Amino acid sequence: MRDTLVLNASFEPLSTVTLNRAVVLVLQDKAVVEQAHPELRMRGAEVDIPVPRVIRLCRYVKVPFRRQAPWSRRGVLVRDRHRCAYCGRRATTVDHVVPKSRGGQDSWLNTVASCAEDNHRKADRTPEQAGMPLLRQPFEPTPQDAMLLTLGAEEFTALPAWLARGAA
Length: 168
Ligand SMILES: [Zn+2]
Description:
This protein is α+β, with helices and mostly antiparallel strands. It has helices spanning 19-27, 73-79, 116-122, 127-130, 143-150, 161-167; strands at residues 3-7, 13-18, 31-43, 48-57, 93-96, 111-114. It has six helices and six strands, in the order ββαββαββαααα. The strands form two sheets. It has a four-stranded mixed beta sheet with strand order 2-1-4-3, with helices on both faces. A hairpin with a 5-residue loop joins strand 1 (3-7) and strand 2 (13-18). The protein binds zinc ion (ZN).
């Protein structure tokens, strides 16, 4: 029950976000609670709100169905689930597969999450030159992933199946 469903201002389902993110959106008056857990409330010094299960954005968000997600370091880490593309351990940096010094771009397909050690070890080389094969190929986020990034999600989470059907 960690995820909270986000509805557009028009009530159409957009995505899910973590509970923390949902609460922040409500506290910042960017969203209202549409459905809450029946028994639970979050209480703090200045806060007393129901634990949201579904929130609705106060402003209509145009869903960029055909638009590419803008590249960002944070986006690469989220896409790769903070896992190093070379060893699978926790990643905190972003590595350019083809190094920038060799013409590599800041793009989704040329960047992967990397642990600091591997990033340092690979240095100014391609994976082939460094003998460090990629565990998985980088990919372009889908438009829905882009929306999740916009909402500050920490990972790409698909809509629950029953909602995806309704939203299609
Ligand atoms: Zn690594």
